[in-house]
Write a structure and sequence with these properties.
- The strands form 9 sheets. The protein has a 7-stranded parallel beta sheet, with helices on both faces.
- Strand 34 (about 765) and strand 35 (about 770-780) form a beta hairpin.
- Helix 2 packs across helix 3.
- The chain has 7 domains: about 1-105, PriA, 3(prime) DNA-binding domain (GIY-YIG endonuclease), CATH 3.40.1440; about 110-180, Arc Repressor Mutant, subunit A (Orthogonal Bundle), CATH 1.10.10.10; about 195-255, no CATH class; about 280-455, P-loop containing nucleotide triphosphate hydrolases (Rossmann fold, 3-Layer(aba) Sandwich); about 470-515 and about 580-710, Rossmann fold; about 520-575, no CATH class; about 720-815, Alpha-Beta Plaits, CATH 3.30.70.
- It is α/β, with parallel strands linked by helices.
Length: about 800
Amino acid sequence: MYFVDVILPIPVENTFTYSITDAEYSFIKPGMRLAVPFGKSKIYTALAIGVHTTQPRIYETKDIEHILDEQPIVHLGQLQFWKWMASYYMCTLGEVMRAALPNAFILESETLIKRKKGVDLEATSIEDDDVQLLVDALQNSSSLRIKEVMDILGKKKVLPVIQKLIDQNVVELEEEIYEAYKPKLVSYVKLTALYEDEGKMHDLLDDLERAPKQRELVLNYFSLSAKSSKPIKAKALLKAANASSAQLKALQKKGVLEKYKIQRDRIEFDGQEGDGIKELNDAQKLALQEIKTIFQEKDVCLLHGVTSSGKTEIYVNLIKEQLDQGKQVLYLLPEIALTTQLVARLQHYFGDQLSVYHSKYTVHERVEVWNNVLHNQQKAQLILGARSAVFLPFQDLGLVIVDEEHEPSYKQFDPAPRYQARDAAIVLANNQRAKVLLGSATPALESYYNAQQGKYGLVTLKTRYGDVMMPENTIIDIKEKYFKKKMSGHFSDTLLEGINEALAEGEQVILFQNRRGYSPILECNTCGHSPQCPNCDVSLTYHKHRSQLRCHYCGYHIAMLQKCMACGSDELDTKGFGTEQIETELKTLFPDANTGRMDSDTTRGKYGFEKIITSFEQGETDILVGTQMLTKGLDFRNVSVVGILSADSMLNIPDFRAHERSFQLIQQVSGRAGRTKKRGRVFIQTYNPYHQILQQVSANDYSGMYKEQLEERYVYKYPPFCRLIKITLKHRDFQKIEDASVWMGKGLQNLFGKNVLGPEPPPVSRIRNEYYRNILIKIPGNQSLVKTKRAISKVRGSFMSVGQFRSVKMVINVDNY
């Protein structure tokens, strides 16, 4: 007998074994997808990881349904990478598989309710109205999907109704599998061979005198084919002739034009390949040479270059070198917004060798990129992507660039695997014997520490490209400004003066406020009541343009209140401010300036980022207000003033990284100013102007911040001197979560003693009606990480075996930063 081991895309610990035939045994290779039955009636897309002849002892094997692939879609190197990820981040292989593969590869399985053959539905005795509705529907249709039954009955709990019909032996259940991915087929037209003769064509045009629209179509066909040798799209021809598809069909029937289809990639860039790569300045040439020297000895190098020092041009030179050797390159970015700007720049250098991979693209587009990378196609030599791009099936990876490597966006928080893309990229590169370049103006403390310890190479760029001066930082004490009545709304007179000067010079302004919406709190002036989310322990945020109060955690929303819900007073006031309120104030203060806003409310669509960024680049927008999306490496040439409206909101977050993150965020947003010849100006509004971090930002003193924070981390045992694992417990019952977290905390404290912090409620302790408790485990450098994880897994196993705790959800987050 022959068997195949498979991974299922569900959170179960083990792989499963299925029976296969002799022919299937010789055909199936690791990395192929199989449709397999699992449980009572479900069918899943599984991934084969090995064939063998050893029968499992614990359970009786089932047969596979069918093989879905001719060739493996995942190679052995990837499977090794998945196994490392599952082991390191304490999750299952199934969860890694679901995160790694585009959704279109994980085929959908739907239950069909089918009428049994030979059963007379009219003769069936029915007492229930819902059952009668379902029987009526089945008389009109031979089969129904579960979702269709829900729509017909207008309820979600439909299984009892279906069960009644199954008990009466009237219907049967069947699983239908359908493949989600469909290649994009584009229709083209060509002239049939008969009319390629000039004489025949003249006769045809004479015959078509009485059908002017058809004649126009033929003439436009000749006009388009004369302009270009490329095939002519049916859509383009109809548009050029202003004709309908009926007229095209008429010409097809007459045998004049022939329609055919070609499979095309969904992602095709229109830009032209440029003449060559920009000439590097002396500092860049030296940095490039140093990186190449480091790569001869070390696999990872950190490029610490100040904002606007020309790091991208160094990346481009390294990419070109790898592409010339026929190697693939992965270029990781923390934010989808950044890909918008970089696509044009990289395509100018590398033409159609570039592919882009991130979540704003459709599943079909992602499948095409996956297949191109898998088959090492010319158009997938350079991959530009967000964190999920580390899962692509690279065949011959030569270089991984992690740009803005300090960014928290590289960490995946939900769902599992909760991986750090920067760290995963280093492991991936190591598996493929590739080099890694980490780039940032404000490196993460861990990366800089590794470089100082000699684990990574370090290259520094201290001057901006073109010897442009670093921006001039002005710290504004808004407590004093409010006291002296020099504030207009949320703007100090100093900031307004800077904005006015920039606009008068025809320059642009960026304003940063790390909170979206109009106002985070709506408060009654009479009784002090503030509307809260019924599902979470947070106040509702006011969104003016929708006239709504919204919860940013669960999405709950209500219409804006006219009166206080508690006392009925109509004296309602907003406290605090977000990007929407700043945008409103700007329109009043600067009525002649065009104001734009960039936050997750305005960038929801596929091209949301592109529209806003392009508008700002082309000078259509004068002032751009935004959240931290604005800080991540965007390159705007005409920005001379940057305003940070409330620095304190970042500094006072209860997190050991708050000061490091604040420094990075303020330094990065400051770096958007003065990127060409004129020196930029940065205005930082704060209630605490003498805060150490603000002073360090003002002096561009990264090393001062690094030394101070490193000292604190050493004293209080935080990374890079120890590793962190955070365990989060969730449940709807308050008492149960209290008991469960105390039990779990004691179990871990028995093993790790004082290195366990908690259980403690997080700052927002209830989200979506679930109570949260956190336990933090610190793992010192001299303690085995593998043994620690094994011990945590044992405690988790014991916890799950306690009956009353089985319903408590547990999330394990390794390297929780």
